[in-house]
């Protein structure tokens, strides 16, 4: 697994840096690399736990959640490490933000793994004073992650001289990721019980029948789906922007316009998944209204892409031009 991560990081490092001087971000990027390696280590621990520990917690294998967190955190840190190379200057600030992100993820990992070792759930668990304090502290940690992510987004928005298409992918990725983090707030107000504050399942109890690997509910709404889609836009949208730059002959401004369409579509997808879950619908059991909304979204995205490409062909001097 470590070798896979090393190869992934090598490929990420070979991506064209969107700024001429990334040395200001070097300390921050080293910190994020250390964090990613620690996340891989935690993932390995979780995989061993899945192999040797037969316990069930909250209706799923005890070490499933730590494994999911290990994968998500690794992807998040690898993507953020590359994105930081797009920010001019701010050496000390980037370093501090990276420390906040890595420490926050480290604390969250310790909390999730520690609760597994105690034989109980982590999220929404208020069964004992210790569980309640740990869950509330984890909420504060997530708030730090949200602030750090938004801060990086602001720095990226203020950066000049970037390839417009790649910059748009980074900025939209950060924005939709922040939306995914905010969506998690809805889980905190999704029902209460003497032993839980909130939950991720709408229309049924947490821990019911779930999809393989993800555990997403097969019978009721699940707020984790929109959260997942939002968070991982941080990797998907910058990667799409890079592929458009490397694999197409499209001009810089055309690619920027395409990323605006893609970013808007990603944000609306998060909202659609959130809305579906809040109505108590399982992902694989959408009703006619949800299917209609999804069809409108797909049609709007297709129309947006078509308009951008047509404008790029007709006005190459404005939308199709690419720098040197």
What is the C-alpha radius of gyration, as a whole number of Å?
Answer: 21 Å
Task: List segments where confidence is low: pLDDT < 50 over at least 5 consecutive residues.
Answer: 17-22
- Structural category is mainly alpha
User: Total number of helical segments?
Assistant: 12
Global outline: globular
- Nearest-integer average pLDDT: 83
Domain module tally: 1
User: How would you write the strand order of the largest sheet?
Assistant: 1-2
Count of individual beta strands: 6
Largest sheet: 2 strands, antiparallel
Helical coverage, percent range: 55-70%
End-to-end distance: 40 Å
Order of helices and strands: HHEEHHHHHEEEEHHHHH
Strand content: under 5%
Describe the protein.
Helices cover 69% and strands 4% of the residues. It is mainly α and 324 residues long. It has one domain (2-320). A two-stranded antiparallel ribbon has the order 1-2. Strands 3-4 form a two-stranded antiparallel sheet. A two-stranded antiparallel ribbon has the order 5-6. The chain is globular, with a radius of gyration of 21 Å.
Short description:
This protein has helices at 2-13, 26-52, 64-83, 91-118, 129-158, 164-183, 185-188, 224-231, 233-247, 252-278, 288-314, 316-320, and strands at residues 56-57, 60-61, 192-193, 196-197, 201-202, 221-222. The chain has 324 residues and is mainly alpha-helical. The chain has a two-stranded antiparallel sheet. Strands 3-4 form a two-stranded antiparallel sheet. It has a two-stranded antiparallel ribbon with strand order 5-6.
């Amino acid at each position: 697994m470590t070798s896979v991560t090393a190869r992934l990081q090598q490929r990420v490092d070979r991506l064209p840096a969107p700024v001429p001087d990334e040395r200001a971000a070097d300390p921050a990027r080293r910190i994020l690399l250390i964090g990613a390696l620690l996340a891989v280590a935690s993932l390995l621990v979780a995989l061993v736990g899945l192999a040797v520990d037969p316990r069930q917690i909250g209706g799923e294998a005890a070490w499933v959640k730590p494994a999911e967190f290990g994968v998500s955190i690794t992807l998040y840190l690898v993507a953020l490490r590359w994105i930081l190379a797009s920010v001019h200057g701010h050496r000390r600030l980037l370093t501090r933000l990276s420390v906040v992100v890595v420490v926050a993820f480290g604390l969250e990992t310790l909390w999730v793994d520690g609760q597994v070792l105690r034989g109980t759930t982590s999220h929404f668990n208020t069964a004992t004073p210790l569980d309640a304090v740990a869950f509330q502290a984890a909420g504060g940690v997530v708030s730090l992650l949200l602030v750090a992510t938004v801060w990086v987004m602001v720095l990226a928005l203020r950066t000049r001289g970037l390839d417009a298409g790649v910059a748009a992918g980074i900025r939209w990725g950060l924005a939709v990721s922040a939306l995914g983090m905010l969506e998690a707030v809805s889980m905190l107000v999704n029902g209460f019980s003497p032993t839980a504050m909130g939950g991720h399942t709408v229309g049924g109890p947490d821990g019911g029948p779930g999809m393989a690997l993800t555990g997403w509910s097969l019978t009721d709404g699940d707020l984790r789906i929109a959260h997942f889609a939002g968070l991982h836009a941080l990797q998907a949208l910058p990667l799409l922007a890079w592929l458009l730059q490397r694999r197409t002959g499209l001009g810089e401004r055309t690619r920027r316009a395409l990323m605006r369409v893609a970013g808007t579509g990603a944000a609306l997808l998060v909202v659609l998944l959130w809305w579906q879950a809040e109505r108590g619908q399982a992902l694989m059991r959408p009703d006619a209204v949800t299917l209609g909304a999804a069809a409108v979204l797909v049609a709007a995205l297709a129309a947006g892409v078509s308009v951008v490409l047509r404008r790029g062909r007709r006005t190459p001097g404005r939308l199709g031009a690419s720098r040197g």
